[in-house]
């Protein structure tokens, strides 16, 4: 073997080693989470839990297929991420059952250019589903740890149209109001008036309402063009309680 061939071989070896090192570091950034994994489980979740229960909106089904739910749950729950139940995400909180996420999203009847406010960022999963459907998502989380983690997670997964803020969602996010739609993922005893104010005429809000030990009702609110408010109870549900001073 002449020197030239040897040099080429060495160069090849370094290229391969360099590639392997890059892959190893890349997977260290998001430990154990490779968004392309669990494609079969995700498809099965959409078919058997969501479509089978009557969610029909094609854009919602597409959005649910497009978000790597396993990247939003703690490592030890990754294999359960697509199962038919909520999952703990730390700080005593949970990521909602996939069907409830899809149902609430469908109820909002979103359009591509909409601005949406979410109260209760949690893991950031619901925000990621919304981000695939609308122009901009604003999401407020009361727990500093969850707000910080969700912001970092959404950034590392490449979501660019979501803004996360730590704060009490009772007050909404006035600076970016009014919103075409509002979704609340923790249950207050009553509908916070600032959220009604920050909803655009013609807009929709989906919110579980009810005390800690009462039956909560998933409620759909519509604000008429004239500002009138109509409410409809959709389904009895069980959400974590709305926290904060109010
Ligand atoms: N939508 C989330 C799940 C939310 S669990 C997801 O997709 O993962 C409910 C979240 O609401 C919790 O993270 C809780 O800390 C938050 N929360 C409760 N009360 C709140 C309030 N007053 N303002 C903002 N967030 C609140």
Task: Give the SSE map.
Layout: H1 3-29, H2 39-51, H3 58-66, E1 87-90, E2 93-95, H4 98-107, E3 115-119, H5 125-131, E4 136-141, H6 144-156, E5 162-166, E6 179-184, H7 193-197, E7 199-209, E8 216-223, E9 229-237
Parallel strand pairs: 3-4, 3-6, 4-5, 6-7
Antiparallel strand pairs: 1-2, 7-8, 8-9
Helix pairs in contact: 2-4
The chain binds S-adenosyl-L-homocysteine.
Residues 89, 93-96, 119-120, 122-123, 125-126, 140-143, 146, 168-170, 185-186, 240, 242-244 line the site of S-adenosyl-L-homocysteine.
Task: Summarize the structure in words.
This protein is of the alpha/beta class. The chain has a single domain, classed as Vaccinia Virus protein VP39 (Rossmann fold, 3-Layer(aba) Sandwich). Helix content is 34%, strand content 23%. It is built from seven helices and nine strands, in the order αααββαβαβαββαβββ. It has helices at 3-29, 39-51, 58-66, 98-107, 125-131, 144-156, 193-197, and strands at 87-90, 93-95, 115-119, 136-141, 162-166, 179-184, 199-209, 216-223, 229-237. The strands form two sheets. It has a seven-stranded mixed beta sheet with strand order 5-4-3-6-7-8-9. A hairpin with a 2-residue loop joins β1 (87-90) and β2 (93-95). α2 crosses α4 (98-107). It is globular, with a radius of gyration of 21 Å. 39% of the residues are buried. Bound molecules: S-adenosyl-L-homocysteine (SAH). S-adenosyl-L-homocysteine is lined by residues 89, 93-96, 119-120, 122-123, 125-126, 140-143, 146, 168-170, 185-186, 240, 242-244.
């Amino acid at each position: 073997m002449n020197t030239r061939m040897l040099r080429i071989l060495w160069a090849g070896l370094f290229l391969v080693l360099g590639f392997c090192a890059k892959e190893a570091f890349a997977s260290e950034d998001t430990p154990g989470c490779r968004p392309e994994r669990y494609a079969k489980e995700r498809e099965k979740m959409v078919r058997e839990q969501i479509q089978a229960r009557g969610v029909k909106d094609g854009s919602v089904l597409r959005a649910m297929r497009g978000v790597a739910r396993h990247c939003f749950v703690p490592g030890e729950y990754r294999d359960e991420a697509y199962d038919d139940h909520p999952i703990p995400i730390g700080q005593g909180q949970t990521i909602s059952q996939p069907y409830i996420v899809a149902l609430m999203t469908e109820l909002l009847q979103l359009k591509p250019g909409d601005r949406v406010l979410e109260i209760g960022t949690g893991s950031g999963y619901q925000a990621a589903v919304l981000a695939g459907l609308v122009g901009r998502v604003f999401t407020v989380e009361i727990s500093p740890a969850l707000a910080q983690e969700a912001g970092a997670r959404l950034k590392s997964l490449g979501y660019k149209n979501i803004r996360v803020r730590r704060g009490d969602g009772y007050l909404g996010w006035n600076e970016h109001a009014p919103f075409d739609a509002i979704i609340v993922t923790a249950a207050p005893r009553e509908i916070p008036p600032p959220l009604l104010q920050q909803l655009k005429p013609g807009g929709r809000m989906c919110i579980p309402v009810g005390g800690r030990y009462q039956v909560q009702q998933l409620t759909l609110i519509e604000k008429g063009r004239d500002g009138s408010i109509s409410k409809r109870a959709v389904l009895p549900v069980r959400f974590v309680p709305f926290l904060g001073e109010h």
